[in-house]
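User: Could you write out the 3D structure of this protein bound to flavin-adenine dinucleotide? I've included everything you need below.
Assistant: Certainly. Input first, then the structure.
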Amino acid sequence: MKLFAGLDQIVKRDEPLADHCWLGIGGPARYFITPRSREELAEVVKRCRENELTIKVLGQGANLLVLSKRLDAAVIHLGADCFTSIDIDDTRVTVAAGADLPRLVRHCIRAGLSGLECLVGIPGTLGGAVRMNAGGRFGDVGASISSLEVMDGAGRIYRRGKDELVFGYRRTNIAAKFILQACFDLEADDPQRVLRQAKQMWIYKKNTQPLANKSAGCVFRNPRGLSAGALVDQVGLKGKRIGGAVVSPVHANFIVVDTSAKASDVQELITLMRRKVQEKFEVQLELELEMW
Ligand SMILES: Cc1cc2nc3c(=O)[nH]c(=O)nc-3n(C[C@H](O)[C@H](O)[C@H](O)COP(=O)(O)OP(=O)(O)OC[C@H]3O[C@@H](n4cnc5c(N)ncnc54)[C@H](O)[C@@H]3O)c2cc1C
């Protein structure tokens, strides 16, 4: 492995991405790399750059559809210990990008810190959540961020303060390749009260989304003032099946899959949902789910 000579311990070849994504489908990645430090990450980035190899950053694949052909890229996963830490100091919480989001939410609730309970029930890593400003009707991750540390495609690290960051509906202005760490300023509160609120939000989510099935969350962004799920429902596609992929009967903006599903089943269903909504409402649905 000349390209990554000396880094053999952290580089796998032709790793099936299906094993790393919530949908459980998708082909292999040419390289799958799990750096153990920021220095190793910077070295990997440098080698990719020198060899013009595309970099893809993978969290837990909770918002991804990976296609079945081999992905000619270096998929970098921030899953090692140094990228998953959570440090709480009074109301300031410093979280590394690979940390599990539900674990972060639990830690904050237990510590009596309010601000992130709105993220209850959202799977994935902190990095994935920041990248798309994950959230829902109760709030989003960007609202409590006070600063970020990011790394660019040349391996340089920068700090971005609150005044430089813009968080919108499932969007941010972060251009850097890697989110490395986020700092949150949260509100001290009664742990029992925060827990009660989180439970209410969790019950709402459980009653309205197909959380028991395999999915990658919402397929489409809501068009301004409209609900993508309601539009798909109104064109009669709730429950529509193609191969192993189904438009969820619980929430029509979710595609759920069984073990026989192929990436092409999901793709065909997405095309059908878009076409029907375009024909009936002249609305172009924009993907929230990312395709690799
Ligand atoms: C059952 C279910 C329910 C969901 N509910 C919600 C919800 O209510 N609200 C919501 O917003 N989302 C929801 N999602 C979608 C998903 O949980 C979020 O998008 C989550 O933030 C994805 O995190 P991830 O680590 O899995 O990212 P991935 O899916 O691995 O990656 C998503 C994007 O983030 C990028 N990325 C990941 N880590 C980093 C990093 N460290 N630096 C830079 N870029 C990075 C990737 O390159 C990719 O572009 C749901 C998903 C499921 C399966």
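The two ends are 24 Å apart (CA to CA).
User: Perfect, thank you.
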